[in-house]
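Running low. Got one?
___
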Amino acid sequence: MKTPKPVESSERVLLVGVGLKRAAHIPGVAAADYQRERIEELDELARSAGAQVAGVVLQMREGLDPATLVGRGKLDEIRAEATTHRAPVVIFDRNLTPGQQRNIEKALDCRVLDRTQLILDIFARHARTREGMLQVELAQLNYLLPRLAGRGVELSRLGGGIGTRGPGEQKLETDRRRIRGRIARVKGEIDLVRRRRQTQRKARRDVPLPSAALVGYTNAGKSTLFNALTRAGVLTSSRMFATLDPTVRAVELPSGRRALLSDTVGFIRDLPPGLIAAFRATLEEAEEASLILHVTDVSSPHHPEQDAEVVKILTELGLADRPRIHVFNKCDKLPPSEAEYIGGESGVRVSALKGAGLEELLARIDAGLPGEEFVRLQVELPLDDGRTLARLHQRGRVLASEMRDSHLWVDAEVPQSLAGQLNPSLRVSRDGR
């Protein structure tokens, strides 16, 4: 599947990082180093939105300015940098209040985005299904509603660049009642789609298969691993948040049984609760799973902090106690002397791109998923149906078999999932009756 085309004319942007000197950060990581890491991530987010990063401004403060976040003096410096780099857009690595955003835009005389708005733009860029597009629109409308006052000029520009993709001018009237009405309608449409998804899940439960879900920091290689295990051919991209829409496929395990594997949206630090709620559909697949596969990009120097964010979000979702396998991906990018110390009893080291370690991972998944309930049934098979007979032997226990009227009569105990997959016309009785 082709990756989405980048924008033809990238907007030049100036990135602004604001850190607190005395804030609590990851143990052993200095506040300034932590802020530089955040700005590197903001740089990657901006490029994923199609931006051309023209420059960076960093500031370490004792506290955040309630009116402008950075203070009036720093705003003069940012304005000069934006002019020097010919950057009409300034992106802050903080979430701005509506008042802060208005004050900063007035002082800089250019378009200002915060972290949430940038992530929403990437979501709008990558959503493919009707549900994904509706969820993006709902999140954008909820974000913009409290920011309408004094935003007439800015709203008239919606739909034309980074941070403005999605609903467009017609759906973002400055009349609050009309926006609230649109929010209500979008919620109703999402509920309809969600009910259809629940129906699909119910159908899957009727043919019970154990399920596992891939979770991890954005760009950890989850979709590449998903494709390697299931041959699904879903979109893979080095851009952040390439996967937004839930994808579920069956995977064959070493024991011969089948399981469902789902790919989910990537996590990121400081992901606002509203964004988590907006993409509940992909996260519902993780909530339904019996086993969580936490995928880590071990080639990233920041993977311990990224792992901590993933665990934090899993805890917020109530999944902290769910059985989990830690999958250390991209081990092929590490020197052999470092790679050999990764994995062990605590996890599995793999290279989804190279296909290394996948057999061990499948074995771990097989052992980590709950065992299936077996049922006893009797079937009559045509003599040429060797495929079904082989499945009965491979995944179940054949108790007896004999020829009857040019058919093979088989008495067997099989996993419930296999019983549900058999052609009903073959079944004579169940539970030996």
Observations:
- The chain has 15 helices and 14 strands.
- The chain has a mean pLDDT of 80.
